[in-house]
Amino acid sequence: MAKSIIDLRKADLTLGQAAASVHVLKGIDLAIDAGESVGIVGPSGSGKSTLLMVLAGLERLDSGEIHIDGAGLHAMSEDEVADFRGRNIGIVFQSFHLIPNMTALENVAVPLELANVKDAFEIARRELVAVGLGERLSHYPGQLSGGEQQRVAIARALAPSPKLLIADEPTGNLDTETGRQIADLLFAKQAERGTTLVLVTHDPALAARCSRQVAMRSGEIVSDAAPLPAAAGEAVPA
Ligand SMILES: Nc1ncnc2c1ncn2[C@@H]1O[C@H](COP(=O)(O)OP(=O)(O)OP(=O)(O)O)[C@@H](O)[C@H]1O
Ligand SMILES: [Mg+2]
After folding, report:
1. In this structure, which of 60, 151, 193, 220 has its CB flanked by the most CB atoms within 10 Å?
2. Is 37-57+86-225 in CATH node 3.40.50.300?
């Protein structure tokens, strides 16, 4: 059996102060095997993005444990978590989060340079070519379409060869066809590199392409299953 790359135990988190406090994650248990693709679904406000932030080490639990590839993020210092994230976790957001005054190439290369990776610009160039943007290296985000910006963000996320790729509504800001192309790219990269993919989506067709769907409601996991074969078959044409 594949080894769990994500192991979340009794994960509990309340955000906000006093009257504005929200019990966002209510003792969540979740184990994900290396190489799985998991779609997290559920109503707005159910805690999906917060769960992803916990998986990325960007949000700390109040109680419970989070192990990524055997490493206990809950017990690490902020610096240790940041270092671990830089080497092991790629993140893609709905609104791309590119740095506007850096070119596509710089957006991918600079984080590598900051992590002291050798040949950062060459790796960045290769990653951009691999997402189909070999002709857009010197473009700034404002000169790129939404789909192209998300390709840059995917290249940036994949450049350090992370074991885990996390995406929060990666197609949410894109039209249907562009969103489908971005999903194709994410699944292709996941398959090619054996990366574990955890994504949040409101799009049932995208969730159905994942090998497993986890549904949340009010801070809890209410179902956890592989999609129905018929639904998966429709969504993934041969
Ligand atoms: N910093 C915060 N302080 C207080 N409450 C917060 C904070 N961040 C999130 N919440 C609350 O936690 C709940 C879960 O938020 P989260 O962003 O995880 O939901 P979501 O499932 O991703 O929703 P959506 O589908 O709309 O993106 C929401 O009710 C939200 O208002
Ligand atoms: Mg969200």
Report:
1. 151
2. yes
